[in-house]
Design brief:
Number of helices: 4
Number of strands: 2
Helix content: 25-40%
Shape: globular
Strand content: 5-15%
Order of helices and strands: HHEHEH
Low-confidence stretches: none
Length: 121
């Protein structure tokens, strides 16, 4: 939640949501089809318990987790080490691809991206 990954339907959710909407699905367009919304899970940023809960329930069906490691749409929020390590552990257990979308953060935090800083690959 709060990360920007472009404007295609599958990732155009919760780019900027009000605090009371945390954990809900907020499409950026009314044209996003219901099956796309149904197939997309949205988690609050920096919430390792939410990560564990969603992987316990849907882990076998999650193909990829995409996030900005430092979401700049919500004020360059820094991730906690626990949040990133929990994501890595749960993705590894489930065989899920973990994608750090660093189009916005790329090279601003380090030459190797934020993955170099946090040690998560």
């Amino acid at each position: 939640q709060g990360c920007y990954h472009g404007w295609h339907d599958a990732v155009s959710l919760n780019v900027i949501s009000a605090p009371e909407r945390v954990g809900t699905k907020d499409p950026t367009s009314t044209g996003i089809l219901a099956p796309v919304l149904d197939a997309t899970l949205v988690l609050p940023f920096n919430d390792p318990e939410a990560v564990r809960r969603v992987f316990a329930e849907h882990g076998q069906d999650i193909a990829a987790v995409i996030l900005e490691p430092v979401p700049h749409n919500v004020g360059a929020l820094l991730p906690t080490d626990t949040f990133l390590r929990t994501l890595r552990e749960e993705c590894t257990k489930a065989g899920t691809v973990l994608v750090f979308d660093e189009v916005i953060t790329g090279f601003r935090h380090g030459l190797g991206g934020y993955q170099e800083i946090c040690g998560i690959t």
